[in-house]
Amino acid sequence: MIILQNADVQQVLDMRTCLNALEEGFKDYTHQSGGDRPNISVWAPCDRMDGYYRLSDMEGVSGSTKTYAIRIKSDILYWTADGTEEKYCVRPGSYCGLIMLFSIANGAPLAILQDGYLQHMRVGACAGLGVKYLAREDSKTLGILGSGGMARTYLQAISAVRHLEAVKVYSPTVAHREEYAAEMKEMTGLSVIPVRSIEEAIINSDIVATCTDSTKEVVTNPAWIRPGMHLTNLRGPREWSPQIFDRADLVFRTGPFWDAWGFSGLPAFIRNVVGQPHEISRIHEWAAFFGKRETLHDELYKKKKPSHLVDLVSSKVTGRRNAGEVSFFTPHGLSGLQFAAVAGAVYRLATERRLGTHLPEHLFLQEIRD
Fold first, then answer.
1. Same domain, yes or no, for 148 and 62?
2. Residue 184's pLDDT is what?
3. Which domain, by its residues, includes 232?
4. How far apart are CA 45 and CA 272, in angstroms?
5. What is the pLDDT of residues 102-119, one digit of tens each?
6. Is 82 inside a domain boundary?
7. Do 181 and 92 reside in the same domain of the chain?
8. 3-state secondary structure of 318
9. What is the helix (H) or strand (E) element at residue 111, kind and residue range?
10. What residues contact 279, with CB distance under 8 A and at least 6 apart?
11. Residue 262 binned pLDDT confidence (cut-offs 50, 70, 90)
12. Average pLDDT, the chain
């Protein structure tokens, strides 16, 4: 049994490794050797009067790595007046996210991994596979909205699957976008230009990625979208206006999500909420998350009936048919499977290099049968 911190994971997980691990995991799923249990969140009042406690977990199994993973996050959440969701564990600036990895060959507990670096790489790689299978092959210009950790891995992944010539980045904070541009130019060798508006980042881009923590619409003008563009996001379709989302000719997500369980989005099943009505009202977007009301985005998402990227990877469905189609990919679904595939690959590479803190197996095994 080993404990792998983010620094250990970073030594063995580059973007190519992550892309390959995810692609194999997706093939596991379509070949019935991979599985997934979607995210379930339990909410409870915390000591913070403008926040809430949330425990989220998801699970998945990958036949190619012969591993089963459980990813757990313990967060205190609060929401700003600007519409962003903030989180921490214990104190601002610290976080608790863990991946517990087990062998499906003999049931042995294999590893506990910090999830921060792996999570950023996983989501970026998933968006990158969306670009690989849906964006035009001659796509050369990328527009990125956001300058955080996910914006960094999105650029790494997209530049790994397309020959980019220029990248434009917009963040409302000037210092953040300039820092991002300088750092990513050095990392990738690409021309990364900070721009002054969302419109400037989008206009004349072949691929546009929203990598924000906003709970509000970020891209609002359909006139900015031209034929042949590939659009991708982070938090779901809400980063894009319904008018833009409705324009997409191809709508894909990673794979099945709630519907894989045979439910039609039962919020009570996916999100269990403890608390009195006045406490629950602290949670941002209460009506959309836990009530009966569906947003226009939700209605459009159902109307579009998104196809699954895992099926496209395995050639079970058709992707882009011509250069003029607008494609939209949201990296949602099969997250548990993705953690099993990527963490399994990380565990193999880390053990080969003798990384991590090793703990005796007897600490995790017992002689009392349940």
1. no
2. 97
3. 134-263+293-330
4. 12
5. 999 999 999 999 999 999
6. yes
7. no
8. coil
9. strand 109-114
10. 45, 52
11. very low
12. 89
